Structures are given as structure tokens and as C-alpha cells.
Amino acid sequence: MAKKVLIIDDDPAIVEFLEDFLQDNDFETVSAFNGAEGLEKLESEKPDLVTLDMDMPEKGGTLFYAGLRKNESLKDTPVVVISGVGPRPPALHKSVPVITKPIDGDALLGHLSTLLA
Predict the structure, then answer these.
(1) Do residues 21 and 105 make contact, with C-beta atoms less than 8 angstroms apart?
(2) Which of 38, 55, 57, 100 has fewest C-beta within 10 Å?
(3) 98 has which bridge partners?
(4) Do 56 and 7 contact (CB within 8 A), yes or no?
């Protein structure tokens, strides 16, 4: 059964790229365009992994990550940050991989393989 990845990014072009790329590599995808919507999809879809942009309207990546870690049943869901925004936010655990935009597909697949093993 395909692993499900929740893509959270406010840029529709990035979301579409990640959906196509991940589906071409045998992942199921679900998408959200901000952290608030991402938390809702996290609850309803229960993905195996989340890709997370940091700089988004309404609720950014840092607030999404904090909300994820407060949810006892989902707090261990792996996260890969995909962002064009500066250094690693202090709220992120050091084990969370960060990929800068533009996205390196091989690096992303490597992190997914490691985190979902």
C-alpha cells in the first residue's frame, strides 16, 4: 500500500509539483495550503509523513509544527521541511530534515525513504 504524504504549502505551483513528483514515485498525496488547513487534514487523513513550508498565511509552519507535536496520537508523524525561508526555525526538532527551494527531488526521496523505513 502506498504511503500517504500531506503536502502543506501556500504556493499552488509547489503543491502541484510535489503532488506530481510524489505520485510518480508511488506515494499517495493530500494537500493543504496553510498550517490551519494542514492540521485539519492531519486529523482527517492521518498521513504517514508531512512536507511543510514554513512561511504561509493564516498559520505558518512553526505553528503547524507546534500543533502537531501537541496531538498525542499524531505527534510522531515525520516531517520534512521544504522552504525557501532562511535558517532552521528554533521550534523544529534537530532531527527534522530541511530542504531548501528549489526542491532537490533526489534529496527529498532520500529523506522520505529514511523517515518511512
Answers:
(1) yes
(2) 57
(3) 81
(4) no
pTM (2 d.p.): 0.93
Can you give the pLDDT of all 117 residues of the chain as single tens digits? 799 999 999 999 999 999 999 999 999 999 999 999 999 999 999 999 999 998 888 788 888 998 998 999 999 999 999 987 666 677 777 889 989 888 999 999 999 999 998
Tally of domains in the chain:
1
Give the integer Cα–Cα distance in Å for 68 and 92. Answer: 11
Q: Domain range for residue 65?
A: 4-116
Assign residue 15 the CATH number of its domain: 3.40.50.2300
Contacts of 56 (CB under 8 A, 6+ apart): 8, 9, 10, 33, 34, 35
Distance CA 38, CA 3 (A): 17
